[in-house]
């Protein structure tokens, strides 16, 4: 992709970070990195809506690679996106894309994995677990925002170099996407977790200069906002 930047033509790479769709979780557990947490029926419809949006967008449907976290919900979301995107590629005579997973874009590590947060028997109110949430700005219950943003940044830097001038799609999770975005926008990844702007199946598109590797722009869209 080529954009005008300060009066000259500059090659750019755009990474479209997609959050996975809604997960089937009737017991309201914090599933974190646990296996066997799959998309719900609504989650699949959300992924389908986002996949249709990507397939119809003249820039996004030019994507040349699709990556995801290795967890079930992200791989399933990415698979649905590929089902929408590959027919568009094939109609142009291009080879279908295959999913590639990467540990650097996995969900944040969380000490509450497998527990239920709520009243009474909720994890936060049992066995001193409340002590792990003494700082919501800099997580005290697991991987820090700085650690999260650093691994996503390493992944993004590598892909910008690997795919100069192209678009790629990356399916990940709320905390990795927003922590990294916040770092790019403010210079630090720490944020108030209740004010994140990363809806389920939303797309955060970050464009980078291939000359400097730096972020040029950030765009956000929520194609699945009305999916019931």
From TrEMBL:
Residue ranges the record marks as coiled coil: none
Highest taxon above the source species: Bacteria
GO cellular component, one term: cytoplasm
InterPro entries (UniProt xref): His_Pase_superF_clade-1 (IPR013078), His_PPase_superfam (IPR029033), PGM_Phosphatase (IPR050275)
Alphabetized GO MF terms: phosphatase activity
SMART domains: PGAM
Pfam assignment, any one: His_Phos_1
Annotated protein name in UniProt: Phosphoglycerate mutase family protein
Source organism (scientific name): Bifidobacterium angulatum DSM 20098 = JCM 7096
């Amino acid at each position: 992709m080529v954009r005008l930047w300060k009066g000259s033509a500059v090659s750019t790479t755009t990474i479209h970070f997609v959050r996975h769709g809604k997960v089937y979780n009737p017991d309201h557990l914090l599933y974190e990195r646990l296996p066997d947490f799959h998309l719900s029926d609504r989650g699949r419809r959300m992924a389908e809506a986002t996949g249709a949006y990507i397939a119809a967008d003249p820039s996004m449907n030019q994507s040349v690679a699709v990556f995801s976290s290795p967890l079930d919900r992200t791989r399933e979301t990415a698979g649905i996106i590929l089902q929408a995107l590959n027919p568009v590629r094939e109609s142009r005579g291009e080879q279908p894309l295959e999913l590639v997973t990467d540990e650097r874009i996995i969900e944040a590590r969380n000490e509450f994995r497998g527990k239920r947060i709520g009243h009474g028997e909720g994890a936060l109110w049992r066995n001193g677990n409340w002590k792990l949430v003494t700082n919501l700005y800099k997580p005290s219950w697991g991987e820090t925002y700085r650690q999260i943003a650093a691994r996503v940044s390493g992944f993004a830097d590598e892909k910008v170099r690997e795919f100069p001038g192209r678009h790629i799609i990356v399916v990940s999770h709320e905390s990795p996407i927003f922590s990294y975005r916040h770092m790019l926008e403010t210079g630090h990844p720490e944020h108030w977790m209740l004010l994140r702007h990363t809806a389920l199946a939303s797309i955060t598109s970050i464009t980078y200069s291939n000359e400097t590797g730096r972020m040029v722009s950030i765009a956000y869209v929520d194609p699945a906002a009305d999916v019931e």
